[in-house]
Amino acid sequence: EIVLTQSPGTLSLSPGERVTLSCRASQSVSSNYLAWYQQKPGQAPRLLIYDASSRATGIPDRFSGSGSGTDFTLTISRLEPEDFAVYYCQQYGSSPWTFGQGTKVEIK
Amino acid sequence: EVQLVESGGGLVQPGGSLRLSCAASGFTFNTYGMNWVRLAPGKGLEWVSYISGGSTTIYYADSVRGRFTISRDNAKNSLYLQMNSLRAEDTAVYFCARDGPRTVPFDYWGQGTLVTVSS
Asked: pLDDT (tens digit, 9 = 90+) per residue, B61-113?
């Protein structure tokens, strides 16, 4: 099983700031099948990025993903008020699909 | 418009059983793989199970294998999760999620149904 470790656990930031979230895999992610999701309290997760760097339908271009192998990054170029949430990475290259433990982006 | 609506959650005693359902609409159900994912209180997301469009491929997380059974009825556009021998650690909100086209993973999710395992 591939273990995904996200860092940091929590980020306290202000609107307008740039955000970089990290996701490190315990072994190489097959075909860079790495996704990022956003989840707000009481809501379903929302797919942001797939295949490590492809934006999902309707996702603003302030969200971008990068990385390969075992190290991946989600960048939010300029935080909007609606971006404060928990972010999860997920690998879907090999079963069992696994998620990271999440990074909470909170308002400073 | 793609819609996924879960039902069947509730309070159940340890060792009990529960069957979750997910009603799908707005897409050709039998051509998409489907998943169950859960979110336990204070924890992160955990993938639970996957079933292919024709039910030929099924996967489970180790934590539920042998206790949970995923199935689908394409004539009814419905996905199911039969949960037996429930434990306190199965307490969570359970989401159904569609596997997207090509290499897109979980592109649509339901709003979730809460399962509480407690005496």
From this structure: 999 999 999 999 999 999 999 999 999 999 999 999 999 888 889 999 999 99
The letter for the amino acid at A79 is L
Distance of alpha carbon B119 from alpha carbon B107, whole angstroms: 36
pLDDT in tens, A25-54: 999 999 999 999 999 999 999 999 999 999
d(CA A23, CA A88): 9
CA distance A86 to B27: 28
Residue of A nearest to B110 (CA): A44
Question: Do B35 and B47 contact (CB within 8 A), yes or no?
Answer: yes
Residue B78: strand, helix, or coil: strand
**Residues of B in Cβ contact (< 8 Å) with A100:** 44
At A90, which amino acid appears? Q
